[in-house]
Amino acid sequence: MHFDFSNRNVVVTGGTGALGTAVVQALIEEGARCHVPCREPSDLDRFPYCGHSRVTLVPNIDLCDEAAVKRFYESVDDLWASVHLAGGFSMSPVAETTLAEFRRLMDMNAVTCFLCCREAAKRIRATGAGGRIVNVAARPALHAVSGMVAYAASKAAVASITLNLAEELKGDRIWVNAVVPSILDTPANRKSQPQADYSRWVKVSDVASTVVFLASPRNVVTRGSLVTAYGQM
After folding, report:
1. What is the mean pLDDT of residues 90-96?
2. If we measure between CA atoms, which residue out of 47, 45, 40, 97 comes closest to residue 63?
3. By CB atoms within 10 Å of each CB, which of 27, 87, 166, 194 scores lowest?
């Protein structure tokens, strides 16, 4: 199936990460123009699409900075879709989880999602043509996992933002959904769990395919969904 993003502008936050790179690859293969905010120059070290004619990298963007997020989205004309992959992870027993760490995860996951959704909604609405927003939650937001209180809470906020925004924006024909993966097969996750059975983990290319469908014009009816991507996990 072809998703036909020809000449459509798509924002991809976290676009230089493992999943983000797979999503950017899939989008440009379908003809999209990708706009990728970056915070640190090191984010680009392993990103293979620096200099690609349909990838615009915007440096020094802190997605927790309200003014910076607003400026970034205002720089993207005729926005069709915004995909929000930026975030962070940590885990610890609740007795060892500091308030600072709880707030850090809420900033990295919930605050970035909220700010990007808000600004994307304004820019997509301005086109009058409808569009798509895709967030990324996580399995612990829906199914309890020991030692992940802070992370799960931050991703549950992402899920709630998704569901409520889908209802709010339906009149503008802006479909809002989230993908909810289990453990992704990434180099970082393999390094942190060297004894795991990687064959059961979810491939980033497969999750990217789901993200691209939800962000595409081919998605004509799906909104307000938390689409699980658990594989064998």
Report:
1. 92
2. 40
3. 194
The Cα–Cα gap between 207 and 63 comes to 23
The per-residue pLDDT for range 125-174, each reduced to its tens digit, is 999 999 999 999 999 999 999 999 999 999 999 999 999 999 999 999 99
The total of other beta-carbon atoms located within 10 Å of residue 225's CB is: 18
Token pair, residue 224, equals 């307000």
CA distances from residue 138 to 105, 168, 172 in whole angstroms, order as listed:
13, 23, 27
Residue 87's identity, in one-letter code, is G
> What is the predicted pLDDT for the residue at 212?
97
In this structure, what token pair is assigned to residue 208?
């990217």
Instruction: Give domain limits for the chain.
Output: 9-229
| 3-state percent helix, strand, coil for the chain, nearest multiple of 5 | 45, 15, 40
Model confidence at 13: pLDDT above 80: yes
Residue corresponding to tokens 């620096």:
50
User: Per CATH, the architecture of 9-229 is what?
Assistant: 3-Layer(aba) Sandwich (3.40)
